[in-house]
Amino acid sequence: MAILLSWLGFSAGFVSCVVSEYGTPTATYKAKGIVVSETNDAPIEGIRAVLKTRLDATHGMDTVYTNNKGVFNLKGWKMGTYEMDQSKMYVELADVDDEKNGWFTDKNVVVDFSHVKFKGSGWDKGEVEKDLEIIKMTPKE
């Protein structure tokens, strides 16, 4: 009987109520903002926003494009306690739609999560969000 139960995945350990936590803890990071023109405060549609852990990173954690109101919402995850202790991330803003909405100079914005409280607790650190509010991009001449 013991052999049959072990084949089915049962063991003497099922009596324990302790939940084991496997894997690496994670944290969710969110950044949002509104991109406008520096000259007239008009929202800019079609700006690519990329959430990065480092400025020199070739890949981002999330990529979105601003809507017709200039709004973007990014979401990314960090894993492991070392990564989660690094409180700065970056949003890379790039004008990639040719001259559709005018030409704008690319911009990097520092996102400092050091003074923002995480929602949630336990094995995973939880979720943190930072509102970058209004970000102005300079038109190219």
Radius of gyration: 22 Å
Kindly report the spatial arrangement of strands forming the biggest sheet: 3-2-5-6
Round the mean pLDDT to the nearest integer and report it.
83
Beta-strand portion reads 35-45%
N-to-C terminal Cα separation, in Å?
81 Å
Number of H- or I-type helical stretches:
2
Shape: elongated
Percent range of helical residues:
under 10%
Largest β-sheet summary = 4 strands, antiparallel
Q: Any idea of the CATH class?
A: Mainly Beta
Low-confidence stretches: 14-19
Q: Which secondary-structure class do the elements indicate?
A: mainly beta
What are its keywords?
141 residues, mainly beta, Immunoglobulin-like, four-stranded antiparallel beta sheet, three-stranded mixed beta sheet, 7 strands, 40% strand
Tell me about this structure.
This protein has helices spanning 2-7, 81-85, and strands at 26-37, 47-52, 62-65, 71-79, 88-95, 107-112, 126-137. With 141 residues, the protein is mainly beta. The chain has a single domain (24-137), classed as Immunoglobulin-like (Sandwich). The strands form two sheets. The protein has a four-stranded antiparallel beta sheet with strand order 3-2-5-6, with no helix packed on it. The longest helix is centred in the first third of the chain and has 6 residues, at 2-7. It starts with a helix and ends with a strand. The model is unreliable at 14-19 (pLDDT under 50).
